[in-house]
Fold this sequence. Notes:
The chain has helices spanning 3-14, 30-41, 58-73, 92-110, 122-135, 161-170, 187-202, 206-227, 247-256, 265-272, 368-374, 379-383; strands at residues 21-25, 45-52, 78-82, 115-117, 148-149, 152-153, 231-232, 237-240, 279-281, 285-290, 293-298, 307-309, 312-314, 320-325, 335-338, 346-349, 356-357, 366-367, 387-389, 394-397, 401-402, 413-417. The termini are far apart. By secondary structure, it is an alpha+beta fold. β17 and β18 (366-367) form a beta hairpin. It folds into three domains: 3-223, HUPs (Rossmann fold, 3-Layer(aba) Sandwich); 231-298, no CATH class; 307-417, no CATH class.
Amino acid sequence: MSRCIFENNVLKKIKSLKEKKILVCMSGGLDSTVLAHLLLKNNFNISVAHVNYSLRGNESLKNEKFVRDFCKSNKLKLHLKKIREGEINKSIQIETRKIRYDWFKKVLIEFNYDLITTAHHLDDNVENIFIGIFRNPSRNNLTLIPEQNKNISRPLLSEKKSDIISYAICNEIEFSVDSSNSQDYYLRNRIRNILIPEIEKIDKNFTEKVSEIIESISSTKIDFVMDNLFIHELDYIKINKQELENENSLNYFIENLKNFNFYNKKEILNFLISKTGKKIVSNTHTILSDREFFLIKRNEILDSNEYELEMGINQKPFKIKLEMTDEAKKPNSREVYFYCDIKLPLIVRRPKIGDTFYPYGMKGKKKLSKFFKDKKMSIFAKQNQWVLSNRDDILWIIGERADNRFIKTKGKCLKISI
């Protein structure tokens, strides 16, 4: 592949990032230096982040110096993290990965970058397939590096290592060498340095063929996401917000909102970046932004009446039975057991601002709003919640939790069931 084709392939994928503020994760090695060079050459707005793990003595210092000099000569802002020698004691590959990604994300938030880019490429994914085969042979599970994952972009992921090398040679790009990549201590290095070269002696097009498999797997995964994007709950539909970070999923989502009479694309796109609690309404449905999910529910008139309950079977707002029994039990989501001297009628109503109760099985008092938050109840679920009270106190968040002060677990009691 010519250097122009390689560069054009990458630029096609990242053209939408032209106005973004990008943090390039740069080790100083070939791949990350080529990525930084390509972005610089094409006038992207970039800064650099580098981690010195202090694992290779003078070589680690040379890598750091190379990145420093690269940033200085190109007038780039450098974010540097240095790990003290001996601080990393566990599995080096696992721990260093966690350290760098946790820190990259911290820098991204603190300095308001739009996204992080890393220089993973096609050969990395080929190696991942083999690692999955060797480590998890019975799980039928191929762990592939995603091209886009939240605010992390990997624009070289479809490109072969050999094309990255050719681009570096043609553009006379200098880079720092990590000698640990040539050592065969780690499984990944043995796959890279021994296994794959032997396979390529048999079939020189091996990497291209695996690339087709990876593309097929990714396509199948996208189809699966499409088919499972709209998750049907009891009386509403939910969509995981993270799934919409994929462009195909997003387009599928917007197109299918027409089934709920949402046609204004601009309104939908503005809603997608709104805060939790925001909603848009069509003539038949409401979409609500609620933490990790968007929720779609058919419009209905919310019953906000209060209903008095007497002994026997009460039909409103739903079937609820009051009876005396000689055998109290622990409360559950369908029935509770109270002391016999509770005065009737009891009241079923919607929660009110400032409502509190003493949750069964817990110590102390709690606001209903805090209880709902801890349960991660959606706004729709909170709107549909009913409570049982004796006008002065909450006795039961119906279907959820009773009040400790009124519960009886043995002997004669008032049983309330739904």
